[in-house]
Amino acid sequence: MEFMSAAWWSALLAIILIDLVLAGDNAIVIALAARNLPPHLKNKAIIWGTGGAIVVRSAMTVGVVWLLKIPGLMGIGGAALLWIAYRLVADDGGNDEHGPMATTFWGAMKTIVIADALMGIDNVLGVAGAAHGSFDLVVIGLLVSIPIVVFGSKLVLKLVERFPIIIQLGAAVLAFTAAKMIVSEPLLRGVFDPSAIARWSLYAVCVAGVLGAGWLATRGPRQSDAA
């Protein structure tokens, strides 16, 4: 693709739109993972977490052709993302530095990078496809995603502090994203492609399952505190 040609600009616009649509999920998980950190560490976690996630995503973009050949990749990533969505909404005490509820900087960083790597699969595939093999467009796409995720995370974090219910909404968004990844798995194409009912049933089960499991996980500690 010729640099700065009409086709190049068209591809760049497509990449920016992909980043705007798909980076929202990443901003949500970063904000939720950082919400329990002390105030002076929140911005640090967002910036460094996004930087680490971009490094991971860059490596994934370089190997996108190889990734496409791995059977079951989207399905496995979706299942793992469901677990992360559950852990984000389940308040099990908030002292596990290895979980999404971590109150330590490195605990939050770990969650951010892992979750972004899982959710970044659809972003990487979309950007690589829109770039049509143009490496400069792939690099621009990665650079564009950085401010979108950083500023989006800060906005979500401020809203979470004022409206805690956004935690449940964020977990629902992540669960829906996970379900879309599972539905997009080529090995399961015969199950979901011909049936819209099967697709929407999976979306509903994933969202309801994550929120329901999170509610059950928080119910016990709350009853103990009340007692």
Low-confidence stretches: 92-101
Strand content: under 5%
Radius of gyration: 18 Å
Round the mean pLDDT to the nearest integer and report it: 74
Class computed from helices, strands and strand pairing: mainly alpha
* Total helical elements: 9
- Please outline the major beta sheet: none
Helix content: over 70%
Choose one word for the global shape.
Answer: globular
Count of domains: 1
Structure explained in plain terms:
Helix 1 packs antiparallel against helix 5, helix 2 packs antiparallel against helix 6 and helix 4 packs parallel to helix 9. The chain has 227 residues and is an all-alpha fold. The radius of gyration is 18 Å and the shape is globular. The termini are far apart. The chain contains 9 helices and no strands. The chain has one domain. The longest helix is centred in the C-terminal third of the chain and has 31 residues.
List keywords for this structure.
single chain, 227 residues, mainly alpha, 9 helices, globular, transmembrane, TerC family protein, Integral_membrane_YjbE, membrane
Compact overview of the structure:
By secondary structure, this protein is mostly helical. It has nine helices and no strands.
Task: List strands and helices in order, with pairings.
Elements: H1 6-34, H2 39-62, H3 64-68, H4 73-89, H5 105-131, H6 135-162, H7 166-183, H8 189-192, H9 196-226
Helix pairs in contact: 1-5, 1-6, 1-7, 2-5, 2-6, 4-5, 4-7, 4-9, 7-9
